[in-house]
């Protein structure tokens, strides 16, 4: 996502927005990562209400940070697959299932929404499990398939596709959509001049 234009991207409904914000802690275009240190991770998870920083086992080290970043990138691959309704790529699936195991995700009967995954582990592992539980909730309520990442390889910003046909490709028509159109126009012009 270019510069400070995140406002141009539609937020996801409800707590799915937390998952979108997690994926967007890496700004591919600007090459900035909000999860640069274990302390950043704890702070982010706490501000997202996934971690109680007064609770036990909230400490994070390089291993927890590497785990969180691996989950984030597996989620990005999963959102890329949502464009064509493709299955979750095998490598991403393995990372997410490993994270679910560490979080001890457990099917829990909820008062209104049936059986939903909930983490039994505490600390950072449990907090990552809380994110995966939000993914499970969104899959159950049908909003998950609209969460995507921009198809522009230099962007890959997570956005919620509100289009009726579920055909949105770019995080923002004004930025990445236009960039793609201009590229296509230049390619056509180059072809017609040869
Ligand atoms: Zn984009």
Describe the structure.
- The chain has helices at 16-23, 38-47, 62-81, 90-102, 123-141, 173-192, and strands at 26-27, 32-33, 105-110, 114-119, 147-149, 158-160.
- It is globular and about 65 Å long.
- α4 (90-102) packs across α5 (123-141).
- The model is unreliable at 1-7 (pLDDT under 50).
- A hairpin with a 4-residue loop joins β1 and β2.
- It has one domain: Jann2411-like fold (Orthogonal Bundle), CATH 1.10.3300.
- It has a two-stranded antiparallel ribbon.
- It is mainly alpha-helical and 194 residues long.
- It has 6 helices and 6 strands; from the N terminus they run αββαααββαββα.
- Helix content is 46%, strand content 11%.
- The longest helix is centred in the middle third of the chain and has 20 residues, at 62-81.
- The protein binds zinc ion.
- The site of zinc ion has 9 residues, from loops.
List keywords for this structure.
Jann2411-like fold; two-stranded antiparallel sheet; 194 residues; 46% helix; mainly alpha; binds zinc ion; disordered N terminus; 6 strands
Quaternary organisation: single chain
| Percent helix | 40-55%
Which cofactor or ligand species appear?
Answer: zinc ion
Low-confidence stretches: 1-7
Briefly note the structural class of the backbone: mainly alpha
Mean pLDDT: 91
Give the tally of β-strands: 6
């Amino acid at each position: 996502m270019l510069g400070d234009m995140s406002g141009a991207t539609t937020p996801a409904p409800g707590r799915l927005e937390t998952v979108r914000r997690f994926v967007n802690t890496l700004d591919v275009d600007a090459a900035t990562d909000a999860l640069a240190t274990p302390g950043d991770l704890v702070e982010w998870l706490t501000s997202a209400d996934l971690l109680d920083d007064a609770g036990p086992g909230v400490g994070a080290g390089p291993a927890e940070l590497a785990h969180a970043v691996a989950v984030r990138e597996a989620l990005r691959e999963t959102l890329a697959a949502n464009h064509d309704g493709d299955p979750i790529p095998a490598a991403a699936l393995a990372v997410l299932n490993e994270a679910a195991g560490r979080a001890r995700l457990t099917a829990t009967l909820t008062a209104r929404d049936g059986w939903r995954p909930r983490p039994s582990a505490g600390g950072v592992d449990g907090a990552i499990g809380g994110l995966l539980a939000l993914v499970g909730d969104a899959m159950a309520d049908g909003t998950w398939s609209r969460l995507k990442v921009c198809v522009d390889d230099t962007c890959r910003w997570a956005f919620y596709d509100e289009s009726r046909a579920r055909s949105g490709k770019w995080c923002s028509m004004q930025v990445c959509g236009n960039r793609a159109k201009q590229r296509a126009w230049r390619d056509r012009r180059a072809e017609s001049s040869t």
